[in-house]
Specification:
- Helices cover about 45% and strands about 15% of the residues.
- With about 190 residues, the protein is α/β, with parallel strands linked by helices.
- A five-stranded parallel β-sheet has the order 4-3-2-5-6, sandwiched between helices. Strands 1-7 form a two-stranded antiparallel ribbon.
């Protein structure tokens, strides 16, 4: 597997769209479906947890929302968490957000640290965690609410080496990495 920088990943997406006429929406749909397939492969039917949690902020959430939609269609009950005062996203991601809500998907908005502290217990019990918080548009270190969320999730997941959650997938840019290690990204 080749690791790409955020800039290289944006260029790969651009070239794919130009050369092969695959739209950004199609790329997002494929990425989200493949992540859902990975969750289904790793968690066999008989041991599949009823809940998977999706944490997101910004446009990377489109891939996470697609994944949540496919898992919902497979009979799971994914919980989607958004960090920020209002879901802000570009058109492609908004399309996935609209589909998620149209299909009856719920969204929990976490606007500030006190709200996060109140809701953190629910995420800390997750068996599957899909982190779609940060994408290739990230500039610098996460701050304020996102920095706190990343710190708390890393504590629960023991920096992705512990037994809980059973599965932790981080899409595009692994939010739990320190800012200096965040440059290489891998596209699912």
């Amino acid at each position: 597997m080749k690791a790409l920088t955020a800039q290289e990943m944006r260029e790969v997406d651009r070239l794919t769209t130009e050369r092969y006429k695959i739209s950004g929406a199609e790329l997002m749909e494929a990425a989200g479906k493949h992540v859902a397939d990975a969750v289904m492969r790793v968690c066999p039917q008989e041991s599949r947890p009823p809940h998977s949690d999706f944490v997101w902020q910004g446009n990377n959430g489109g891939d996470g929302l697609v994944c949540a939609r496919y898992l919902k269609q497979a009979g799971l009950d994914p919980r989607v968490w958004y960090f920020g005062s209002q879901p802000r996203m570009r058109r492609r991601c908004f399309g996935q957000f609209y589909r998620w809500q149209k299909d009856g998907g719920a969204l929990t908005v976490i606007e500030d640290v006190p709200t996060w502290e109140h809701r953190f217990e629910a995420i800390s019990r997750a068996q599957v965690l899909v982190d779609a918080m940060l994408g290739t548009g990230l500039r610098g270190a996460a701050e304020r609410l996102l920095a706190r969320v990343i710190t708390d999730i890393n504590r629960v997941t023991s920096n992705a080496t512990g037994m809980k959650p059973a599965l932790c997938l981080r899409l595009i840019t692994p939010s739990g990495l320190p800012p200096t290690a965040r440059q290489p990204v891998v596209q699912c």
